[in-house]
Design goal:
mainly alpha; 63% helix
Length: 153
C-alpha cells in the first residue's frame, strides 16, 4: 500500500478514535429514548453526550456488545492509526489481530467475575461487564471447555 493511502487510513483511524473517546466518556443512558421518556420526544435537541445522538447510540452499541472493554477501542485505534504514519511503528499494521485477542480476553475476564464488576455493568447498562460478546464467549466456549480457573489462567 502506498504512503498516501496509509496516511488517509491513519487520519480516519485517529478521527474515529477521537470520536469514540468523546462518545464513550460522555455516555449518558438517558440520551437514548428507550431509557427515558421525554416530555415531547420530537422536540429533543440537547444531549448529554458530547458527540450528540450519533455518539450516544454508538457508545450504547459499544457498551452493550463489548462492555467496559469498549474503553480499549480508542487507544487501539490510536495505536493502529499511528502505525500508518510512522515506519518505526509499521509492525502494528500487521499485528492488529492481536489487539482483538487482547480485547476478547479482557471481555472474558470482566464477565468471568460478575460480582466484582457489578457496578461497571450497572453504569454502562450492559448485560455484563464484559458485554454481550464476553458473556457469550465465556458461557459457550471458555467456561464450558476449561472452567473458571482455567479461563482465569
Amino acid at each position: 500500500m502506498d504512503k498516501g493511502m496509509r496516511d488517509v487510513i491513519g487520519i480516519l483511524l485517529l478521527a474515529l478514535a477521537l470520536f469514540l473517546l468523546i462518545a464513550l466518556f460522555s455516555y449518558d443512558p438517558r440520551d437514548l429514548s428507550f431509557y427515558s421518556i421525554a416530555a415531547n420526544p420530537d422536540d429533543r435537541t440537547t444531549y448529554n453526550n458530547l458527540a450528540g445522538l450519533l455518539g450516544a447510540n454508538i457508545a450504547h452499541i459499544c457498551f452493550f456488545g463489548l462492555g467496559a472493554a469498549a474503553y480499549l477501542l480508542p487507544p487501539a485505534l490510536l495505536v493502529i492509526g499511528m502505525g500508518q504514519f510512522f515506519d518505526i511503528l509499521g509492525f502494528l499494521r500487521t499485528r492488529w489481530p492481536w489487539l482483538l485477542v487482547w480485547g476478547f480476553c479482557f471481555m472474558g475476564i470482566l464477565d468471568l467475575y460478575p460480582a466484582q464488576f457489578e457496578n461497571i455493568k450497572d453504569n454502562i447498562r450492559a448485560p455484563s461487564a464484559g458485554g454481550a460478546v464476553g458473556m457469550y464467549v465465556n458461557d459457550f466456549l471458555v467456561e464450558a471447555l476449561v472452567g473458571k480457573a482455567g479461563a482465569t489462567i
